[in-house]
Amino acid sequence: MSSRAIELTPVEYFVDPGFSEWVVRARGRGTATIRSVGKPACAACKLPVHSFHVTIIVAPMIVP
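The structure corresponding to this sequence follows.
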């Protein structure tokens, strides 16, 4: 996934660690919202689905 503000790149593993990881890089000024939903791997354990979102604002760095 990419936008004007950020680029998301999945991290590839040789062995599946049981989770997904992404690298977030700033591309330019702007705002981007990342949303994710995760279901537990154990269908029998009846754990709830988790969701979250985060908004990232890319702005110029101000150096004093």
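Residues 6-58 form one domain.
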